[in-house]
Amino acid sequence: MSHVKAGGTAKNVHSNAGQRLGVKRFGGQKVRAGEVIVRQVGATKVAGSGTYASRNFTIHAEKDGVVKFVEKKVRHFTGKTVRRTVVTVE
After folding, report:
1. Helix (H) or strand (E) holding 39
2. Is the pTM of this model over 0.90?
3. How far apart are CA 27 and CA 15, in angstroms?
4. Facing residues of 85 across strands?
5. Which domain, by its residues, includes 45?
6. What is the CATH number of the domain that holds 54?
7. 38 contacts 22 by C-beta, under 8 angstroms
8. Do the domain assignments include residue 70?
9. DSSP bridge pairs for 84
């Protein structure tokens, strides 16, 4: 027999807001220096020329220009190759 009474379940207890992640400026759009291009968790997209990544992996425009997304194959230390999207501002 159980020694503890049934506790039941708790629903609708997650009250934290979403993080509003994702691509903020798409390919071909004009950006100014300092604007956020991508908000992300981890480096799913990599900062290329004309951009820089902040501490939380957010990619910003380093200069004024037009956003461009290019897929590249990146090799890990283990030898595994994975695709990464490189974000550039030209």
Report:
1. strand 36-39
2. no
3. 34
4. 45, 71
5. 22-89
6. 2.40.50.100
7. yes
8. yes
9. 72
Helix (H, G, I), strand (E, B) or coil at 82: strand
- Contact in structure between 51 and 59 (CB atoms under 8 Å): yes
Predicted confidence (pLDDT) per residue in 26-82, tens digit: 999 999 999 999 999 998 999 999 999 999 999 999 999 999 999 999 899 999 999
- Domain total in the chain: 1
Q: Indicate whether 64 belongs to any domain.
A: yes
Amino acid at 23: V
- 51 and 43 Cβ atoms separated by less than 8 Å: no
In-domain check, residue 16:
no
In sequence order, what are the beta bridge partners of 36? 60
- Residue 65 structure tokens: 């220009």
pLDDT value of position 15: 83
Task: Give the chain's length.
Answer: 90
